[in-house]
Write a structure and sequence with these properties.
The protein is of the alpha+beta class. The protein has two domains: 28-95, Trypsin Inhibitor V, Chain A, CATH 3.30.10; 97-148, 2-Layer Sandwich (Trypsin Inhibitor V, Chain A). Helix content is 25%, strand content 18%. The strands form two sheets. It has a three-stranded mixed sheet.
Length: 148
């Protein structure tokens, strides 16, 4: 195996050193991967289509730094040459889920508000309060704005 590796490395070195292959032959039939990081998914797809690469969404990651649907990472670095229609996977930003404020709401309205965001409600016991009307939510845990 070692001799195979040395032979391949030596051949590559000689071909490059003495310019045995015509200029540009190593890039013939390839396309350059564009920079997709920071673009919205729709723009990244247009750029990928323009240079003839296949864009695949590998996943989504919650983040506050980027707008929802923005490309965070790409599998093949920008500037690298690949064959036409080569797949390049990307990871997209997803809006970080935050717990909505439900204090002061009736249980039915609070339940709907939480379900819209993908959360469930677990109501505790009713407690008398001078500050909150009967039938309304007085406290919540986790607190409103918490990331989950």
């Amino acid at each position: 195996m070692l001799t195979s590796v040395l032979t391949a490395a030596g051949t590559s070195y000689l071909l490059d050193r003495y310019k045995i292959l015509p200029e540009g032959s190593e890039t013939a039939g390839t396309v350059v991967v564009p920079e997709l990081k920071g673009l919205l998914e729709v723009d990244a797809r247009k750029n990928a289509e323009a240079v003839q690469i296949a864009l695949l969404v590998a996943g989504r990651e919650p983040t506050e730094e980027q707008k929802d649907g923005t490309v965070l990472r790409q599998s093949v670095p920008a500037g690298q040459r690949v064959p036409p229609n080569h797949p390049v996977s990307v990871v997209l930003a997803q809006e970080a889920l935050k717990v909505p404020a439900i204090t002061g709401l009736p249980i039915g309205e609070a339940t709907l508000k939480l379900k819209e965001k993908g959360f469930e409600i677990k109501a505790g016991e009713s407690v008398p309060s001078a500050d909150v009307e009967n039938g309304l939510i007085g406290e919540q845990s986790p607190a409103a704005g918490s990331e989950l």
